[in-house]
User: Which sequence fits this backbone?
């Protein structure tokens, strides 16, 4: 049976359901939010066997890699989904609540701060772990720095619309849907880079319209990672960074109102230098950069393995017939 691509999954979040849970948190706090969220998470986990299957697949690979001491159980899978539910709340609070008490520690950011100071644009590979929005909120304080978030699907439209309704400051953050890199979108991204913007693009999800991937060992087994971020960095000859984000401390009582704290770690994939891929060893150069990204991702997961929220068949095979990803656009 052919696995459905993650981008073809219907969005299961409900706008008014999210509003209800956010209202509960706003007036009653995090503990009542957890109490109301519990049945929602349990229902979703029970009704969607794919979520359970993909969660267990990841947890088992993580355990084999040494991230868990004991064999994963279904209860750990349920906790994995609950972890994600809490992160959804933190994402909203990071960008909508001026009194958000969650703290953020930033590691290894000197090179990217140097780029900001000299107004040099850069590509930043992100992953689906932790709360990237905490970093975006921090970036809003850099008033002269534009932030661009590239998205491969329309799944996040409701999420982004709700955020913008609650925080007008988000207008300085540009959300771009780039299911495929077209000449028009390439020129638009180039303009942002030229103005010194930081362009964020996921490094751990393959776009539906692209098979431009690189096969790399991840948690002990080969998986396909998208190379779009590397291609963009080479196209515009700018630095390439990565970020991983995890929750700290790792554990807290379930029935508590404790606020989460996050750590963001920057990886200097191109060592702060502009990316120039040698056409004669194109595949090798791309592989080196993507292996560095995967190493950063695995490093982050050692800190908090439940923070990775890719609930689909991540290790499923991708067609070996690659589309031509070498085409470059001049603007």
Assistant:
């Amino acid at each position: 049976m052919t696995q459905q691509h993650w981008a073809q999954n219907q969005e299961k979040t409900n706008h008014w359901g999210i509003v209800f849970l956010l209202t509960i948190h706003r007036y009653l706090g995090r503990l009542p939010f957890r109490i109301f969220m519990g049945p929602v998470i349990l229902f979703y986990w029970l009704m969607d066997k794919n979520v359970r299957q993909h969660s267990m697949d990841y947890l088992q690979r993580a355990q084999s890699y040494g991230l868990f001491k004991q064999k994963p159980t279904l209860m750990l899978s349920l906790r994995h989904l609950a972890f994600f539910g809490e992160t959804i709340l933190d994402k909203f609070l990071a960008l909508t609540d001026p009194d958000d008490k969650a703290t953020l520690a930033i590691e290894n950011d000197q090179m990217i701060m140097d780029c900001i100071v000299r107004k040099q644009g850069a590509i930043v590979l992100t992953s689906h772990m932790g709360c990237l929005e905490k970093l975006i909120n921090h970036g809003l304080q850099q008033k002269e720095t534009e932030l661009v978030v590239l998205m491969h699907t329309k799944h996040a439209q409701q999420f982004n619309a709700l955020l913008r309704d609650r925080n007008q400051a988000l207008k300085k953050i540009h959300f771009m849907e780039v299911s495929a890199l077209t000449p028009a979108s390439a020129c638009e991204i180039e303009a942002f880079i030229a103005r010194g913007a930081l362009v964020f693009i996921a490094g751990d999800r393959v776009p539906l319209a692209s098979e431009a991937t690189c096969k790399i060992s991840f948690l002990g087994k080969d998986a396909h990672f998208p190379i779009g971020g590397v291609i963009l960095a080479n196209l515009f000859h700018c630095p390439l960074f990565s970020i991983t984000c995890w929750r700290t401390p790792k554990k807290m009582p379930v029935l508590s109102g404790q606020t989460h704290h996050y750590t963001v770690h920057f990886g200097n994939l191109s060592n702060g230098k502009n990316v120039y891929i040698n056409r004669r060893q194109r595949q090798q150069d791309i592989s080196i950069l993507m292996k560095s990204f995967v190493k950063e991702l695995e490093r982050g997961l050692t800190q908090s393995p439940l923070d990775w929220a890719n609930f689909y068949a991540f290790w499923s095979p991708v067609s070996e017939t690659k589309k031509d990803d070498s085409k470059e656009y001049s603007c």
